[in-house]
Amino acid sequence: MKKIAILGATGSVGRQALDVIEKFPDRFCVTAMTAHHASEELLALAKKFGAKYIGVTGSLGDLEFEKKVPKGVSVVFGIQGLLESCSVGDPDIVLIAVVGIAGLPPLIECLDRGVNVELANKESLVCGGHIVKQKMKTSKSEVFPVDSELCAIYQCLGGMDTTGVRRIILTAAGGPVFDWKKEDIEKATVEQALRHPNWRMGKKITVDCATYMNKGLEIIEARWLFDLPPEKISVVVHRQSIIHSMIEYNDGAVIAQLGPTDMREPIQYAFGHPDRLSSVVGYLDFAKIGTLTFHEPDLDKFPCLRHAMDALREGGSLPLIMNAANEAAGDLFLERKISFGDIEKNVAFAMNKFAHLPGNSLIEIYTTDKEVKNYIYNNV
Ligand code: NDP
Ligand code: MG
Predict the structure, then answer these.
(1) Ligand 1 mutation pick, 13, 207, 263, max ligand atoms within 8 A of CB
(2) Do both 132 and 170 map to the same domain?
């Protein structure tokens, strides 16, 4: 029986993870779960899955809520709820499925405690990849990718290292405004940006897909997970999202990982590996799929991907600045305070305005993140 802690249990990845756990009651159980504000939903999930510990990160305390928590279940508020969930009940795996830089503190906590991580959250690696990498050298923890593209690369490697890899090719679905004119894209509404053609996900990542920043974050995630130089990381637009990503080797051979377009596929692999459990989402029917298409990403229409490529090449604090600006601008867009086109403008502005440092301590990371976000929130 694998014991699993789910950070971000009420979110899109968290709920899909719980769905996988529910399908394999003899293999997986839940030790702890967290949510940010959705405390009532969290409590219902904790009762259903028998979690003995819940963390509510978006509140510093709520006596009324505590009264509803049954005997035998502990509730902890604030960031402590997130950090304690990494070890209470002695989990075999911690799934980090919170959104944004909030994923970095629990990732560091797991590495320090030698707890294995299934990582859905990509912003943690974008902001603190160099520290995470350093800690991974001495930590007993395994950091296993749940993000479908990165999980695909892991599977394509089949346990080998990256010797002989000419490049990895991350596939991008193209998002909801892929074939729009540039001037129309800039005016996309919240509803239009949230209409992803293939994946049902949280709002932040769905907007990131529409701007292509999601792929930008993933190329940086790949750099840290697989220790690859920028020139070996590439992107191709693949509208059907059937190929989850590929590796091209020096001899021209390409290994691809294909599968249903459903996050429960990489989640169940991450939980079950090295075992291959029967699919909870069904199997591909190639004759029905018929055609797979590929395009170059259009960096003129989607400049966020270009900014991320620059950040990947330069490293240091630039990916962190880019991420902070993107998180803040994405929030403002969802609150309808800025336009879709303004997300990219804010990202470009912040990448120019804030000093680029060669490396950052954790304190410097959190300080820079706050500074960039405050600047953007206060200057709309
Ligand atoms: P959601 O917005 O659906 O869920 C986020 C979860 O984290 C919720 O449980 C939420 O609680 C909690 N949360 C929100 N803000 C904070 C915070 N500041 N501190 C702690 N917890 C917080 O996001 P997704 O599930 O879509 O994405 C989660 C992560 O996984 C992201 O980093 C995303 O990029 C990555 N990912 C997601 C994929 C997907 O298919 N959704 C695919 C690949 C990667 P509450 O419900 O109370 O708000
Ligand atoms: Mg992805």
Answers:
(1) 13
(2) no
* pLDDT tens sequence across 346-366: 999 999 999 898 878 999 999
Which of 287, 110, 129, 89 is closest to 217 using CA atoms? Answer: 129
Pocket test for ligand 1, best of 33, 205, 212, 215 (most atoms within 8 A of CB): 205
CA 33 – ligand 2 centroid, Å: 23
Select from 5, 3, 2, 12 the least CA-distant residue to 204: 12
Domain range for residue 192?
161-260+297-314
Within 10 A of 371 (CB to CB), how many other CB atoms are there?
Answer: 14
Residue nearest to atom 16 of ligand 1 (CA): 36
Number of domains in the chain: 2
Residue 327 lies in a domain: no
Find the 146 Cα to ligand 2 centroid distance in Å: 8
- Dump pLDDT digits (tens) for 7-39: 999 999 999 999 999 999 999 999 999 999 999
Do 73 and 132 belong together in one domain?
A: yes
Q: Name the pTM for this structure.
A: 0.98
Residue 61's region, left for phi above 0, alpha for psi from -120 to 50, else beta, is left
